[in-house]
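Support request, please re-run this one:
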Amino acid sequence: MRMKIFLLSVSCILLTIMVADALDQRDEGAKLGLDGANQIEMPFLSTSLNRNYTEDHILVYAENQSINGTFFGPIARAGSDVKVSISSFDVAKFLNPSLPGEEINFPGILTKTNSTGAAHFTVPGVPGGIYTLLVLDNNSSVALMAIPLLITQGNLTIHTPEKIMAGDVLRMKMNTTPSENQTRIFAAVMISIKDYENASINLQNGTKNITLSLGSKSLETKGKPSLSSDLLMQVMNLLPQNSAVGMQESQSQDAELYLITDAQWPKEFYILTGVTYSPGRGLVGLRQEAIEVV
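Re-run finished. Output below.
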């Protein structure tokens, strides 16, 4: 049972293997703003193309939630046509957005930038999964922006103290929507922000491989990443000593978890990542909070 708890809880970290929050090819000075997204802090990202990224969050939406955003292009693009589309996430496609990809639900949205080079858009909601949101020059099909999105089956909220004493038990309440009658697995992992910031992800162009490193330990996934017990066991071995995990299986949309800390833990901020998974539907919700250990 203890092994099962570790395996399911560590899926919180495994999610960072599946997606990488970064901007790939883009116009100089271009930005992308998305409204209503839940943000999950991301490890440092690098690629085999020698591009490093400073973006540090994964953007998370709920299934079928409309995605409203604005592309802020340079003024040189004022009055030009851009296309916004969503395709299934693929490492090769993400590293080179000009490659053709399978578009989901719709053939893309055409919009025109205004006098400042900005363009507003609304993308229809999509089923749960991992996607790449692309902004393309409609005339040349050159990728102006590429950013991954994680779409969950519903929403997750977490209620927990903002700080605890080292050695105390962290009590956290989790709630998910929608309120369907289904088995849910509620899991959480707590790791120091310093350890989290020392984690890194490397995308290998051509091989579609992804390497996750934490301190002196690392693991590599080959091909399109997918959740499996074997992969969870490998990720578990990356967890540092000063970390805690918890899990509860429930038919309810609510759960209460208890994470045990140690009196020797460094007094600093920790990242608490909560995840809810349904064996019948997939990832239900994902959220993070910052906890101070004093």
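The first helix runs from residue 2 to 9. Residues 20-152 form a domain with the Immunoglobulin-like fold (CATH 2.60.40.1930).
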